[in-house]
Amino acid sequence: MRKCVLFFSFFLILFFLKSCDRNSNRMYFTIDPKDRKIVIPVRLNDSITANMMFDTGYSLGAFILDHSWLLDHPSCLPEDIIPDTVNAGSVWTGIGTPGLQYNNFHRSVSIGNRNFEYNRLLTYDWKNYAHPMSDGLINIPEKDTTHVWELNFANNYVEIHEASRFKMPKDCFLLQMVKYEDNPFPFYINIPMHLISDDGDTLTTNYVYEIDLAMPEDIAFWSDERLEFFSNNDNAVWTRSPTPSGYKRYYTLNATLFENFHVDSLRIYIFNNSYNKYTQYLIGQNFLKRFNVFFDLKNNVIGLQPIKNFQRIVNPHQKRFYYMSRPNSAGRHYITFMADYEENYFIKAGLQTGDQIVTINDIPTGEITREQTYEFYDMDTLVYQIIRDRKPMTIIVPVDKNHAQGD
């Protein structure tokens, strides 16, 4: 009996150790509902922990650290390399910020119990510019063919597998990565989709999509005059985009992917600003959250394993979009675009495309800050002094506080 107990105890200990070893490469992540970015813990210099935003859209052999975080951890900076001054930033905002770039050095970063070498470090005011909830940005190392990276949305963790021993789950949809020789971003996949609108219109697409975890939306299309399917639908929800004075609109559709995978309430976002020369189509986090995602750079394959209980993360603070205004060469601000939907109370009040906005609530348009723009949503009325056809006019806009906000 004693031998049986000892054997059983040894078996339990062995099983526990094996489970610990198997799970040691798991880093549980968090997703803040406001900014909807994935954040995981990593270690620098074997001992210093940084909470890093995890992304796939930035894979140039580099990682990013915040200036203020580095002031508290100076040992993480290269000692013998003089940095280059660069204009850092994100393609999403269109506005750069001063940064420092350290090239041709090797920094070991521990993710789970595995070490990865990065040969470039970019530092700038990351927290204020991009993401106050993290210390920087980390990505899947460029050309990492020895591991398979699992992004598990069923249980919110990133796990790194040995590629030589990894087997893709049987219920995965396997998608071959599309390669561009001169493109540094590796994660492009082709997904056939059959879209159905509320009124029964259909559209079959077979586009190449870039995977971008930093984009919280389901799927994004950049303005494309060929997409009459969306232009003919009047059920769009208009919201502001990250670019200054930019906008996006989304349509909620039913869809069939991969010929047999049905998705309800798929959101297709149409952005008004251009993106890059490689693709006009992106897949974001709220699409990927329907799957556990496996990045296999050795075989240039991405696996999508469907999971149950998908829940979209929504930003309740996202503001609706009503109109766009831009200054001309003389600094005069004109309305260049009005969002044409029934709830747009600026149109109801009488504003039109082409109006020159002189002041809003007695504030000259050139002096209005971003903060004041958001404060306008909380006011009861807005008073616009405009010029239309060379005639000054006053237009009073009653603010509809019941107009639902949120993404």
Properties at a glance:
Pdz3 Domain; 3 domains; six-stranded mixed β-barrel; 43% strand; 407 residues
Task: Walk me through what this model shows.
- The longest helix is centred in the N-terminal third of the chain and has 22 residues, at 2-23.
- The protein is mostly beta strands and 407 residues long.
- The strands form 4 sheets. A 6-stranded antiparallel sheet has the order 1-11-10-20-21-12, with no helix packed on it. A 6-stranded mixed β-barrel has the order 3-4-9-5-8-7. The protein has a 6-stranded mixed β-barrel with strand order 13-14-19-15-18-17.
- Helix content is 13%, strand content 43%.
- Mean pLDDT is 84; it is low at 2-23.
- The chain is built from 7 helices and 27 strands.
- The chain folds into 3 domains: 26-142, Acid Proteases (Cathepsin D, subunit A, domain 1); 168-306, Beta Barrel (Cathepsin D, subunit A, domain 1); 323-398, Roll (Pdz3 Domain).
